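Dear all,

This email documents one entry for the complex benchmark we are building for the journal club exercise. For each entry we list the sequence lines for every component of the assembly. Then comes the predicted three-dimensional structure of the complex as a token string, followed by one or two observations. Please use this as the template for your own entries, and keep the labels exactly as they appear.
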Amino acid sequence: MAQDVVLGIDIGGTGIKFGLVTRNGEILHTDKVKTKGYPKPDPLPEDLKKRIAEPLKKLGAKVAGVGIGTPNGNYFDGTIDQAPNLPWKGLVPMKALFKKTFRKPVALTNDAKAAALGEMYFGAAQGCRNYLFITLGTGLGSGQVVNGKLIYGHDSLAGELGHVIVYRNGRLCGCGRKGCIEQYASATGIVKTYYELLRNKNVDSFRLSLGNMIDAEKICALALEEDEIALEAFSRTGWILGFHLANSVCYTRPEKIFLFGGLAQAGDLLFEPTIRSFEDNLMNIYQDKIEILPSGLKESEAAILGAASLIWGEMEDDS
Amino acid sequence: MAQDVVLGIDIGGTGIKFGLVTRNGEILHTDKVKTKGYPKPDPLPEDLKKRIAEPLKKLGAKVAGVGIGTPNGNYFDGTIDQAPNLPWKGLVPMKALFKKTFRKPVALTNDAKAAALGEMYFGAAQGCRNYLFITLGTGLGSGQVVNGKLIYGHDSLAGELGHVIVYRNGRLCGCGRKGCIEQYASATGIVKTYYELLRNKNVDSFRLSLGNMIDAEKICALALEEDEIALEAFSRTGWILGFHLANSVCYTRPEKIFLFGGLAQAGDLLFEPTIRSFEDNLMNIYQDKIEILPSGLKESEAAILGAASLIWGEMEDDS
């Protein structure tokens, strides 16, 4: 009998990655296409179906369902709504398009929520029924799991933890408001903090001239070389992230918090000041009870595993 | 056949109120005892049972279950843990005590969560599956309902929305930290704001001398007489509450927000600046989509109805 696999799809601004994922989280095959190859989304499902036909045959597997993680994905409607980094305008009925082609269960959600589910099925949150999953990449994304379920809220747009305002009249955010936490605690945010420190501390023009080339990874490398300003940038980023997480647990009281994404790769440089600030700012009833941990998902696999777990999760709910 | 009623109990610092509640939210009988009459909690269940025996007989009703709302109530454990305003120290196994006496389903939770459930069963949230319930009394209490269920989190201590820090190094809070929203947006908070304004604006000593007698109700009366400082106090309180609610919806994306409790009775004086600030501070994806409304529960009945709905709710889940 053919083995069931889920087609997990990660839609991004540059590429659309996809993989065949078993119930155990093994990725048997991966591939990708360029997003700009699809000025209209309609041919995408048929193209992916063709591309996986041969691998499926070789593996002796069949597709049990399709899970899609995408920016601005709406779980309830199965649509992508005005994602700023994708070529498609308006409301794209992506779930319906895939359903028409594959005639199997299809589920779609935003990328951070998908990765949060991946953490439960295939990562470090296995067995944990209440947790917070935070991605620290270009922005700050999140998934909140309460009693074993992702929180979607009224219209699937719950969990915008990156857009909680932490500094009134702070840095301008992509959402049009000022002071959102993602302008501070993200790969983008730490770069802004680093520049601010450089300017304020009036260091030699040499480093300022290097300004344009600085990214979060470079700041991490500098911090590992004990560069004072890079260390200070991590310390400040950790402080505000820890503060934000201390406020955030008042809402859902997670058992654990998982940090994922580029900035979380910095390890202790980020975790140490974050955990210190978290405990310092935490309400006493929560103190020393909530762990902040690195994600158990590989950066390269998380999105596809997360997308696939949407389907594996729904199948378990039904059974 | 005897009619089923739930014994709803509201445990407070001064009194323990209780009532017999039908499935339709009718309160057929109420009574109360003094909290200080119970230096130990053990005799309480037997006493209440005796007190309702006669009324039950007259009504031709029998007790189908007991719901208890209490400060620091833990839904999972059925205990009351170190409630500062109650005479009982340590961990009180209140649910177990009542179960022993009544031999019927017993459920216990904290008072704000119970009232939030009451809103769903008997108030303005009927039919609404995602909402935020905020009580503005001595402190700021809350219940968050997502997909028709209260959020309890890992240990039943989710939903401490009153202890989100909105001003770093702000007013000292009862929790030992500084700047918690409940020190600003509550009956206590508006009094503090009023005093601050009096001091800063250097008004005549006459009103300062009245200081000790000012409470939220008095500020409301002054504001209705167009008193400038009282109006300013409401405006500031509404602003910070609206800001806090705008941040809060990023977590659970409610369809509606209900305001309950003494300060919410001020009506437009509070709602108008709150709603204005809420919309001003809201992320664009939520704008004009979330209503802030007064609770549909009567102040005098909410606690008992809320406690009773714990049991009616559990019975529906089981059926």
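Observations: Residues 3-120+300-318 of chain A form a domain with the Nucleotidyltransferase; domain 5 fold (CATH 3.30.420.40). The first strand of chain A starts at residue 3 and ends at 11.
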